[in-house]
Model the fold of this input.
Amino acid sequence: MLNIGILGCGRIGQVHAGSIAGLANARVSAVSDAFPAAAEALAASHNAQVSTTEQIIADPAIDAVVIGTPTDTHYDLIHQSARAGKAIFCEKPVDMSADRIRDCIKVVEENNVAFLTGFNRRFDPNFAHIQAAIRAGDIGDVEILTILSRDPSAPPVEYIKSSGGLFRDMMIHDLDMARFMLGEEITQVFAVGSSLVDPEIGKAGDVDTAAVTLTTASGRICQISNSRRATYGYDQRLEVHGSKGMLRAENLLENNVEMATADGFAKAPAQHFFLERYQAAYSVEMAHFVDSVLAGTPPAPSIHDGLQAQILADAAALSLETGAPVNL
Amino acid sequence: MLNIGILGCGRIGQVHAGSIAGLANARVSAVSDAFPAAAEALAASHNAQVSTTEQIIADPAIDAVVIGTPTDTHYDLIHQSARAGKAIFCEKPVDMSADRIRDCIKVVEENNVAFLTGFNRRFDPNFAHIQAAIRAGDIGDVEILTILSRDPSAPPVEYIKSSGGLFRDMMIHDLDMARFMLGEEITQVFAVGSSLVDPEIGKAGDVDTAAVTLTTASGRICQISNSRRATYGYDQRLEVHGSKGMLRAENLLENNVEMATADGFAKAPAQHFFLERYQAAYSVEMAHFVDSVLAGTPPAPSIHDGLQAQILADAAALSLETGAPVNL
Amino acid sequence: MLNIGILGCGRIGQVHAGSIAGLANARVSAVSDAFPAAAEALAASHNAQVSTTEQIIADPAIDAVVIGTPTDTHYDLIHQSARAGKAIFCEKPVDMSADRIRDCIKVVEENNVAFLTGFNRRFDPNFAHIQAAIRAGDIGDVEILTILSRDPSAPPVEYIKSSGGLFRDMMIHDLDMARFMLGEEITQVFAVGSSLVDPEIGKAGDVDTAAVTLTTASGRICQISNSRRATYGYDQRLEVHGSKGMLRAENLLENNVEMATADGFAKAPAQHFFLERYQAAYSVEMAHFVDSVLAGTPPAPSIHDGLQAQILADAAALSLETGAPVNL
Amino acid sequence: MLNIGILGCGRIGQVHAGSIAGLANARVSAVSDAFPAAAEALAASHNAQVSTTEQIIADPAIDAVVIGTPTDTHYDLIHQSARAGKAIFCEKPVDMSADRIRDCIKVVEENNVAFLTGFNRRFDPNFAHIQAAIRAGDIGDVEILTILSRDPSAPPVEYIKSSGGLFRDMMIHDLDMARFMLGEEITQVFAVGSSLVDPEIGKAGDVDTAAVTLTTASGRICQISNSRRATYGYDQRLEVHGSKGMLRAENLLENNVEMATADGFAKAPAQHFFLERYQAAYSVEMAHFVDSVLAGTPPAPSIHDGLQAQILADAAALSLETGAPVNL
Done:
């Protein structure tokens, strides 16, 4: 039984608490939040203690923490939790600065604590199935990876301004997925981008439509395209072309009913909300974290994976700025 | 090179002439029609002779005839053509009366001429692929056959009145398909039916919505359902459940483009027109007829298949009338 | 907050307890089982009391009971629970005898307690979506309903012997679904059946492959086919043909990945296990029960629905025995 | 009635002759080929004259020529045919050199003859439907175009050496398609490529796996990826993401039958052979050429389209060589 403290009782903290409640070998022991009411509500529905972040980190009965607080607090919470010997489940991004992530790696490794970077998409049953099939050799050598990823709608421009930009805020998930699928480190990044969805995003210095080409030392190629808006839902697809075949994952729809009328055959839109779309992924992710910590094996994606994704996002942003490919 | 005479230059005669034009080992030598203009137009586009039915049947240079004239003329044309030693491609139904088909069988067999009953759907590439897979044992023993067959829209009630009714006019195709797929003769027929599409059809003594259950001696089961109207096109599907698996054929759509919008994912309606839907089937059917005649092997479906389908249609009509299953 | 007692802690009792745990407005207060160990395990994981059935029914703090015990105990538990004023969630079938279900209806109505018959499939999101679309008029008038329902594999013949036969044990779900979708009571039942899957089932006097034709007063038609074995998983499909269009639900697969190789395009089998296949349905079902009881509105499907399905299953069995349609 | 001369009776000449035979308003009048036997066979099956290229071009009774000879002969044949006033249907590429294509444009324009560049894929019914839907505004403004294009298997390395390389030989089709769909000229090309399929291709100085990123002045983005080998057939897909929705075309399979077994659900591979895959496209292409010439309207794609595609292919090759994006 793993006793877990939830740091941050917002939307994502609630999701993780729900995942823990579904596990036989873990429980939500304590929760904390800057807003007491949020902590109280979450505690009540899970029969957990309302506490402070300091108390949770200091409590020897707590084995692990889930860090679901704002990104700029991750650095300190990781340092404190690692020093207190807690296993750490940290939401992505670990930090907006690669150098600060390197600091976090240092403290995590010095204190030898388990650490999982919350790239939830790796745990999506379909994406995970594809990665396992690749590893099993089902399609031979990976040659071309195509990732099509579009959000249902753009966030407010105010959010955009503090988000670090499309590459660090949105494409970072796809960049991590590329590493997960390619099975080889990326050596070059080339990015293009435009502001086609919302001119305010362009005025704020960001793009809302972008495409990246990644290559590896052995010549594997990955193409990613992003849009901040897809009228038909949260578009999350990928396919891997290999020497012996191809694997692909299509969108999950709101339901699977087909309706035929004089207009033709119609199905529902793709699931819109990321928490619904990745509900299964979040559950599997938490189960993997808990099982790993209890077994004493390192969970994945690691904090190094968190760093590599950030380095790729930085490289994509630099490529867009300079108009030239960036070699890593 | 097989020299073919086309008897009847209407819509179906034109289709068969077109199929012959695509073959390297056959040609349209002569055509006849009650309306001279129809014969002349077809002859011109195929560089063939305009002739009379009598001349075609009497012409020793003609090897085979395609009978595409009204059903009530089939009986005489089959008799004349068989006696003249022509190979015969006859549109379905051979005749509306099982007894008269038996007469035709007699003359065909006495004169030992090749005969193909035009159940075109057997030659649809998907249905033919399924039947070949069944025969190859891909799904083990056939257990349940499901045929979903709906026309895009009901014919005029005047047509209905002279059509012999839904079972003899429309479901006869499905009854032949059932025999083709089941691989065993049918021993019992139970039918239900209603007039839901057009009340005038009901007043004319026919049904426009019907379902039939067929069983065989070994216990195989087939369910067929028909409607005279499907808003989404010409609905032609079937599936076969066997001891080792299942095979099915879905509809062919007007195109394969998928459009995604806020309303969801949309595809085109099913192809509406039977000549478009079964274009490939008509071509393969004619190629099979020509190849069989040239090789001296019997084409299929035979005139016996034409008789059996008629017997099943009669049984379905009787079952609907009596409300009880009919044993064969 | 609805306090619920679980009567029977086997597989289905555990499923319902899990559904309750996911609800904010209900909780598992007490559980009972003939095997104390089963009750203790379920109580522990839900922080509930281990109790006896008698105590639960007598406890005024318990608002509702979930009856998940063997079918032959339902009759007494319904009587006791109704007299104690409990809301009742009863697994299907209510009882194997229509007359005994009528007794249960009497006691439920006399005591004016809420009652839900556990036809879980009505709550499957896809089937429920179809029924709602029908009710909304999206496809006009219902004309033909087709239900294809096959189990992954046949149960042991010992189970078959006490099951009441295929119609009462397996097809009863489809018969209820037919009533749910047709929107009109069924007036005639015709059944055929064979033993093709396992000859032992035939020797035990049952069939393992069956097809039923249902008709309503206005002429709507439903065809159902069942097999006790589908190599490709738990096959659960239906489609509704209406005057304005068609709605259908396809199978849910183990995952949605497509793999392309030289053999073609491949997807995973259908989900095999009914608890996995209908997991979402069970959750929605319990939520509906809890919400209805708390709101004081009658849950559905009602005990009358349980009776009607049993009457249809009895009629199908009689039709198979007599070889003739049975009018209701 | 358009009288057409076929120059070159190889595989593609035969395809075009077959398309013409299916048209009511055109006919194959004469054919020529360096190999007399090829010309004779094609003439026989179409009742046409065997002739020489010079005679065909000089014959005033011939309205149009189809140039299906080797690429290095196109330049002279275009000059001669244009000066003789023939309408010209020329296979792609017009020429391997952009400058030489500019010469051809000059002679075509000076002589004011109709000219169609044989980018057959524009006439594929699905791709054409997508382009028409874009033009109709169905998905709003085009933002991201994704083209996935893989050949079933790599050609012999000897062919590769004289092919002009992957960009000029294979991707040129996709580059033309990009122009067709984007609705705006391309201003930047960035290419990456590797030799992953056949090391001999790499030794010959070419790539067999490549990806290109195209951008337009308004910020539209296109990603193309190519492989010389796809085990599952001729992979030809594209999708267009727009401000109001998305359109996509999937592969055409060898048949549409689905087989379900314990391994899951299986469909046939994609059609392998380009003449089969694009059979419908070739027919529509020829019909468009004939109709345009008869109507006196310019056919499309024009010779300018042929030039632009060549310029893009050259730019892609240069980008691969230099490792930098190429601005146009």
User: Anything to note?
Assistant: The interface with chain C takes residues 230-232, 253-254, 260-270 of chain D (CB under 8 Å).
